[in-house]
Amino acid sequence: MSTTVSQDSPAVARGDALGRWIGRHPIWALVIAVAAIFFLWLVLAPWPAGFEDVFGKKRLFINALFNGATLGGLYFLVATGFTLIFGLMRNVNLAHGSLYLFGGYMGYEATQWTDSWLFSFVIAFISCAIVGIAMQYFIFRRMEGQDLRQTLVTLGLSIVFADLMVWVWGGNAIQIDTPDYLSGPIPTPIVVAVKSSGEAVFLQYPLVRLVIFAAAVLIGIGMWLALNRTRIGVMIRAGVDDRDMLSVLGYRVQWLFVAVFAFGAGLAGMAGIVGGTFQSISLGEDSHFLLASLQVVIVGGMGSIPGAALGALIIGLAEQFGQTYFQNYATVSTFVIMVIVLAVRPQGLLGRR
Amino acid sequence: MALLQTTETGPIEITDAQRGGAFSQWVSRNAAILLLGIVLIILPAVASNFILVQVVGWAMILGIIALSLMFLAGYGGMVSLAQMTVAGVSGYMITVFGVSSLPAISLFWPWWIAAPIAIVIAVAFGALTGVLSSRTEGIYTIMITLAIAAAFFYLTLQNWPIFNGFAGFTTIPAPVAFGVNWKEPLPLYYLILFFAALSYIAVVYISRAPFGLALQGVRDNPRRMEAIGYNVTAHRVAAYAFAALIASIGGILMVWLNNQISPGSAGIEATIDLLVIAVVGGLGHPIGAFVGAIIYVILRTFALDALVAVGLDGRRFQTLIGLGFLLIVLFSPDGMIGLWRRLVERASRSGNSNNSGNRSGH
């Protein structure tokens, strides 16, 4: 019964569910509400003096928050492809970090030739999608169902790709220039400090990071809509649940696999440009982003897009706050989160068994 | 998962040696491995110190660590990428508790205190890895253990109070004990050989002991084992702890041989190389780990010159390793061991058909 209701009017059903949940757990709802209000106060209000002594400068906190959220947006772009490929094909694509790096390098080449930052996204998407299609069509199609063997193949490919990319682009870090219309910081309505004269100091934050974060959110919403409102989305979700049955029903599962692999790889490639603009791309970044993708899907839930979004936000924030407040143990914070999630909910926060 | 279900537990073939006594039977069944042992024991008589320590010794250490991976993957069905990390933990711990060039961090305790502490910590770490990855099954194991390995790598890179950041530690000599300076090439070689043989024998023994058989049952059908009353999780965690014991010994030897440890020693590349070694050698038999290791070390040592000699860029070593690994995974999933078994089978089949046609149906 409830499923039909939620399909007809999801928004209403969700509102009901929220109300019912509050009715059932009034104390938890209160705790969450108080925490949310406290968090908003932390972000928006200027901090009292005693507070800054304990937690450090507010500027640090706000910067960690913004950097963490925008880094989470980048992680989301990389990890959605990973989680989608895993969910549909049961293929742990350990070459996903290599696709990220390859996209970054191709985007860099495109900006060198055409001077257009936006156009480089197209180039990176297409070139990574072609690599993804080739991988799925020539290799993984031939070893379907042997998930360990597929994983080992992706591992071998990642070794070869990494070495070939060093060959072509060398070991030095490459930075992709931010286009003029997005460069520089913009003022935000968030007070980070109050001068002795009583004048409020507002946070200045790089525009490009905010734009990228908004784009990641839009892509996430777009993917959610595509998965839940379109015919191909229905096919993908059905394939995640039971691909044999989907195939029996006469759908071209192989074409679906190729399409999803191409899309996931293309997203990773576009994320490479984002990463190259945010930070830089270099040797070793492939394993960094592979690790990030792994952590995101382990925390968020394997094969789930909302899970990838939640996981990416959590891992991004944990990494930035870790680097700000306990530098020597920054990676431990993400590791501890992973351990807690595995202990409490092995399938991930939003994952299904 | 056909890749993993190729281990053999007991004697499969019944040979002519069955007619002899128990001892000669045993000898003929293990002829190859006994011959290898004898060759390794008398090797110092002919080989230079470089070959002895940097090639054979290094291969045996990698083989010990790869053996722990082979044990988990082959008998337990759990492909753990955290075994190099376990070795790294014990290597770092013996440096922190023992001797190094950094008195600010190292405690300079004697080896007979530092080594057991390092092993205990590494085994605890390995068991914890097991507890975590046993929460899920199958392919998730690779993801979780790879995440653990990478997290440890970035921790060692960023952490200065304990791990001394990217610089790591240098000057970590093997100790002088029982009147022997184990730092010298010859004693070090025999020390490594002793532990390689010990861990090989231990894995072969465990694989035939009740625990090893139960573990293989857990690998093949965890639900059925659960139903007969075995504690599946406990068996898995115990397997991780045993594998960690082997890997931690390998880790200490690794530090003593290299005389240094840094994040790269247990980094992501080293982690993946270890998996390459185990898979190329073959996950079907404990000797595979050592076969893979010697192939890897020989390539690592001599491929650069060989590549240059045929007119290629010597720095493309990783591509060579990656392509070789891909070829093995694509065409001989049970590794060199499987290749060897098939060759022997074919040779014996053709030999038999030449001698007497009626015995060809073996």
What does this structure look like?
The complex is a heterodimer of chains A (353) and B (362). Chain A has 353 residues and is mostly helical. Helices cover 75% and strands 5% of the residues of chain A. A two-stranded antiparallel sheet of chain A has the order 1-2. In chain A, helix 6 crosses helix 13. With 362 residues, chain B is mostly helical. In chain B, helix 3 packs across helix 11 and helix 5 packs across helix 10. Chain B is globular. Chain B has one domain: ABC transporter involved in vitamin B12 uptake, BtuC (Orthogonal Bundle). The C terminus of chain B is likely disordered. In chain B, the strands form two sheets. In chain B, strands 1-4 form a two-stranded antiparallel ribbon. In chain B, strands 2-3 form a two-stranded antiparallel ribbon. At the A-B interface, helix 8, helix 13 and helix 15 of A face helix 6, helix 11 and helix 13 of B.
Strand and helix map with partners:
The complex is a heterodimer of chains A (353) and B (362).
Chain A: H1 2-8, H2 10-24, H3 26-44, H4 49-55, H5 58-89, H6 96-114, H7 117-139, H8 147-169, E1 185-194, E2 200-206, H9 207-229, H10 231-241, H11 243-248, H12 253-278, H13 285-300, H14 305-325, H15 330-344
Antiparallel strand pairs in A: 1-2
Helix pairs in contact in A: 1-2, 2-3, 5-9, 5-12, 5-13, 5-14, 6-7, 6-8, 6-12, 6-13, 7-12, 9-10, 13-14, 14-15
Chain B: H1 22-29, H2 31-42, H3 49-76, H4 83-97, H5 111-133, H6 140-158, E1 169-170, E2 176-177, E3 180-181, H7 185-208, H8 210-220, H9 222-228, H10 232-258, E4 260-261, H11 268-281, H12 287-309, H13 317-331, H14 335-355
Antiparallel strand pairs in B: 1-4, 2-3
Helix pairs in contact in B: 3-7, 3-10, 3-11, 3-12, 4-5, 4-10, 5-10, 7-8, 7-10, 8-9, 8-10, 11-12
